[in-house]
Design a protein that fits this description.
Strand content: 15-25%
Strand order of the largest sheet: 3-2-4-1-5
Largest sheet: 5 strands, parallel
Shape: globular
Number of strands: 10
Distance between the termini: 62 Å
Bound molecules: S-adenosylmethionine
Radius of gyration: 21 Å
Mean pLDDT: 96
Number of helices: 9
Length: about 260
């Protein structure tokens, strides 16, 4: 019977795939992928010549919601046809990436075996390149547009990571970039939580091992002037770290003086 394994190829070419994922990739009967560039596609093809890109299902003017459904259906059909299928996505296959989750849910519902293996995601790279540990202050992550439209409060004592900042406020799901007006609105919303001169970072991990990461530090007010791409991630350092809270400590029978 057919089966599906969703794997992540990591961000940086060739070196960030896990040994287990590589084994599945090499042994698959049919490999589909959504990969960032031709180099990564050629590399996956060198490991398994059955590789087929799903990028052709994206189109300017076509809703991404429809594209993801179409991709899911192509993958599921190959499993129904009895193939041992691998879906190879860059980064981690299940982080800010819906097609693997959709396909697994659909296939399991139809009685097929389907699983996801973890991969090295963009945020895994950013902790390493920017040199911070999300455990020090805590860390919150949102898809930029979902955050901007939701009105949810930000916790300014923790790091904030906004994924897909290059699509900030893009509500049509039909185009692949944001606008100056959207970025100005983004500044107004972030300014509810952070001062206009708060320093933040645009981060892009390299896809190719010899390249360096993009680490651009700038002030909140200058966001509309920044060059945002489809791989930019916005990192906002906290205003304050975590502090001890007297009434919370009371619950444990502790006092601030117990911490020296
Ligand atoms: N599954 C991917 C992962 O595990 O990293 C994330 C895919 S999500 C659809 C695309 C978003 O991931 C981008 O808008 C950006 O926020 C982030 N991203 C992708 N590639 C990146 C890179 N090379 N450096 C930094 N962020 C990246």
């Amino acid at each position: 019977a057919g089966s599906l394994t969703c794997i992540g190829t990591g961000i940086t070419l060739a070196g960030q795939i896990t040994t287990l994922s590589k084994n599945y990739l090499e042994q698959a009967e049919s490999v589909f992928g959504i990969l960032p560039d031709k180099l990564s596609e050629d590399w996956v093809k060198s490991l398994n010549p059955s590789y087929q890109s799903l990028q052709y299902l994206y189109a300017e003017g076509k809703s991404r919601r429809q594209t993801y459904q179409d991709m899911t259906e192509v993958v599921c059909q190959a499993v129904r046809d009895g193939k041992k299928v691998v879906l190879a996505l860059y980064g981690h296959p299940g982080i800010f990436a819906c097609v693997g989750h959709f396909a697994i849910e659909r296939l399991k519902g139809e009685g097929y075996e389907a699983q996801m293996l973890p991969g090295v995601s963009a945020d895994a790279c950013l902790y390493a390149d920017l040199g911070f540990d999300p455990g020090t202050t805590g860390c919150q992550a949102y898809e930029a547009t979902q955050f901007l439209f939701s009105g949810v409060p930000l916790n300014t004592s923790a790091y904030t990571i906004l994924w897909q900042i290059g699509l900030a406020g893009e509500h049509t799901l039909k185009t692949f970039k944001t606008t100056q007006d959207n970025l100005e609105a983004t500044v107004r919303i972030l300014n509810k939580w952070f001062p206009l001169d708060h320093e933040m970072i645009l981060y892009e991990a390299p896809f190719i091992p010899v390249q360096s990461p993009r680490i651009d530090r700038f002030k909140l007010k200058d966001l509309p002037q920044m060059d945002l791409t489809s791989i930019s991630t916005l990192v906002i350092p906290p205003l304050t770290g975590l502090k001890l809270d007297k009434s919370s400590l009371d619950e444990f029978g502790l006092d601030i003086t117990d911490f020296g």
